Amino acid sequence: MGRAINAVVAHAPIAWPLIRGFSHSYWESRAPTWGERSAHQYLAALAAALLRVPEPERALDIGTGMGDAALLVAREFPRARVRGVDFSEEMVRRAQARVGLDPEGRIAFRVADAADLPYEDASFDLVTQLNVPPFFAEIARVLRPGGHAIVAASFGSATPFYTPDSVLRRGFRKAGLEEVETGAAGPGTYFLARRAA
Q1: Across all residues in the chain, what is the average pLDDT?
Q2: pLDDT 10s digits, 148-174
Q3: Which of 37, 121, 140, 180 could bond 192 through an S-S bridge, CB–CB 3.0 to 4.6 Å?
Q4: What is the distance between the alpha carbons of residues 193 and 3, in angstroms, rounded to a whole number?
Q5: What are the Cα distances from residue 65, in Å, to 9, 96, 125?
């Protein structure tokens, strides 16, 4: 099912409203047990990709779930303001609970649909997503000129929400981003793209 949803979003994002409700219900039902996986293996590809980008001022993690990827970005870039979005209310509630005391508001989570992000154009220097379908136009819209986008898959092509490099390359090129590099770490893979300055 994940591959079918991913294919629809990557190839025909206009169809997203037809499957949004089902996808939302699926992730709401998974939220209570979502933290029961190995974070080290799960985040390896994203961590490797983060080593290849300059420190951002503002970063956004799309489909953040319980916030694992957003928290990794915050640890890697201690001066960055990091935002995480997910359209599961329960996932966002659990992610926010993990932040604890953050008087500067450096890390925050909110409920949002990746197809219609609640941010102004050119709001972020870095956009990341792990194991979720890519909404190319929205990623490009919120990314600043010269900013980077990372799409990572925890288990490479075995990841349920996997998007092949050829689809990422074509989708990002159409949205005004060019491939920087692809790579692998542990069982996962990543695709790094950059918006032209």
Answers
A1: 90
A2: 999 999 999 999 889 999 999 999 999
A3: 180
A4: 22
A5: 18, 10, 21
Where in the chain are the domains? 2-195
Q: Is 116 helix (H, G, I), strand (E, B) or coil?
A: coil
Rounded to 5 degrees, φ, ψ at 62 are -95, 135
Nearest to 193, CA basis, from 157, 139, 131, 141:
139
Report the alpha-carbon distance of residue 126 to residue 77 in Å, rounded: 11
Give strand ranges (E) for the chain.
58-62, 81-86, 107-111, 124-130, 143-153, 177-185, 188-195
Name the class of domain 2-195.
Answer: alpha beta
Report pLDDT digits (tens) over 73-86: 999 999 999 999 99
